[in-house]
Amino acid sequence: MAMPMIYDLTMPQMEQMLAERGQKSYRARQLYAWLYRRRVHDFAKMSDLPQSLTADLAQTYSIAPLKVLDKQVAHDGTVKYLFALADGSSIETVLMHFSFGESVCVTTQVGCNMGCAFCASGLLKKQRDLSAGEMVAQIMAVQQDLDAENRRVDNVVVMGTGEPFDNFEAVMDFCAIINSDHGLAIGARHITISTCGIVPKIREFASRHLQYNLAISLHAPDDALRSQLMPVNRAYPLAELMAALKDYSTQNHRRLTFEYILLRGINDSDEQAVQLARLIRGMNAYVNLIPYNQVAENGFAPSSEKTILHFYDVLMKHGVKATLRTKHGEDIDAACGQLRARYERNKNGE
Ligand code: SAH
After folding, report:
1. Most buried residue, 90, 243, 267, 292, by CB count within 10 Å?
2. Is the CATH number 3.40.30.10 carried by domain 67-347?
3. Residue pLDDT, tens place only, 53-76
4. Architecture of the domain defined by 6-60
5. pTM higher than 0.85, yes or no?
6. Residue 174, class by beta-carbon neighbours within 10 Å (0-12 exposed, 13-18 middle, 19+ buried)?
């Protein structure tokens, strides 16, 4: 059994752990400062903590950085990391440079069980959930590279491999840890969680009144097509999904993002744009149109640029705000799960 990671602990959990060791709560803040501000990987270096405590912690918790198995850098500066976890599993993390800052795309599970037809992540079934600390460690590994250039992780998108709401508590803890003022202090409004639409968890998320952004992977304007593309829709059809989202908006007053990948000849017609507009009109929401990153294995193709722009116009004309996502890392294995899928295949000699 690998040691638990110290990165697993939220501030209240850290205080509790230290209280059990007879320590005052301010020690938790000191520990957070060492971990997340000075970013040390050795308890012995935490010079303002009692030596007996740091020795004890070193016996109990790991702060080992993630092992880098592969790192691809695209022409636009996008970096795709393939990390090894303590148990030997591999996961992907992506760093993207935007005008508004450095953005990291975090993985939440080893593999994914949602089975979306167009996605490379689902090529490898879920093996396990990641712990909060394994998500924090992804941010820390990227931040370590950025430290060399005096830059920092400004934004986090929980859009890597896995379904965050299928690993709900660990993802909530992860967000709380990176959001903590005593640590990395990444603003809640700079953290976006993307879900394929697990309705009970959307309702749970709404009830917590958190300030993180919520994005929904929609990808189809009707149940028949959505169930075909995204099996989760069979459990939680559009009417239930939209009702939960409307309740979220009423309770939280936050703007929602709908993600919509444009797949050639599948979901990119004029009628579908109108249907989509009808579904969303009146909500405090906008649609993020995503160019499809082709995955060799599944036969879908991206819509042409002309179609994408036209789809955008139809949405706007029908009173729905839309944005076009720019492509990042086109010359590397940037589609969700592509790098990992290739690595795992090679490892197994396929
Ligand atoms: N499970 C979550 C988060 C991970 S997927 C979710 O479904 O939202 C993050 C986003 O990437 C989703 O919108 C997903 O549909 C999209 N995506 C998956 N494969 C893609 C591909 N090949 N090209 C473009 N976007 C893709």
Report:
1. 267
2. no
3. 999 999 999 998 999 999 999 888
4. Orthogonal Bundle (1.10)
5. yes
6. buried
